[in-house]
Design goal:
Elements: H1 3-29, E1 32-33, E2 48-49, H2 55-87, H3 96-109, H4 125-150, H5 155-185, H6 187-211
Antiparallel strand pairs: 1-2
Helix pairs in contact: 2-3, 2-6, 3-6, 4-5
Length: 216
């Protein structure tokens, strides 16, 4: 067999494999990769399952998407208004805390597109608050450990703090797993909760926006 023939065969094989990949990719991406109950999160290949959305789920997804867009637009109006107020020399001290919260919330809403995709799970306000508290606890313990090390504390003291850090991290991991399980088993209910949270946040932002022009 000549080199020319071998080369032609190689090109044909490459084309066949490439076409096969192009055909297969859309089908794979159309699936939702989830970890089913009882499966180890360290499994090399997660179970591939379709998430079946009801007509109500689809409608709620569109409602949620529209709400998040409105939240983002309102946050932008607030930023623009604050900029104009500062330029005009207005005192915004009274609204410092509210503005900080508003901009922070608007920032995490910017990642809301995750709910539209298989791997994305948006957190409810209750879950976000709980996780923030857990993270604060972990950071506090880590800071304590750092301080005690600098102070040349006894090894027993350092070990005790390490145990607390490990326990806090374990609790956070377990909570995250419970959130994922709940999201996969009751997706419809989560959408309803997220819509309620978004409406509450939007109302808060709109109230803040309306209050800004009344500043002296």
């Amino acid at each position: 067999m000549t080199r020319r023939i071998i080369g032609l065969i190689s090109i044909v094989l490459v084309l066949v494999v490439g076409i096969g990949a192009l055909v297969a990719v859309p089908a794979v991406r159309a699936e939702t990769k989830t970890v089913v109950a009882g499966q180890s999160v360290t499994a090399k290949r997660p179970v591939i399952a379709k998430r079946i959305l009801t007509a109500a789920d689809k409608a709620n997804l569109q409602t949620l998407k529209a709400l998040y867009k409105t939240i983002g637009d309102t946050a932008k109006q607030i930023r623009d208004k604050v900029k104009a107020d500062k330029t005009a020399g207005k005192n915004l001290t009274t609204f410092t805390a509210d503005l900080k919260t508003a901009l922070k919330d608007a920032t995490h809403r910017a990642f809301s597109r995750g709910i539209m995709f298989p791997r994305g799970i948006m957190l409810t306000e209750a879950e976000r608050t709980a996780l923030a508290a857990m993270q604060t606890s972990i950071r506090t313990f880590e800071q304590q450990l750092k301080t005690q090390r600098k102070a040349k504390a006894p090894q027993a003291t350092l070990d005790a703090i390490k145990v607390q850090i490990k326990a806090a991290v374990t609790a956070r991991t377990a909570y995250l797993k419970s959130i994922r399980t709940a999201a996969l088993t009751d997706y419809s209910s989560r959408l309803v909760t997220l819509i309620a949270d978004a409406n509450t946040k939007l109302a808060s932002l709109q109230a803040l926006l309306n209050a800004l022009p009344t500043l002296p």
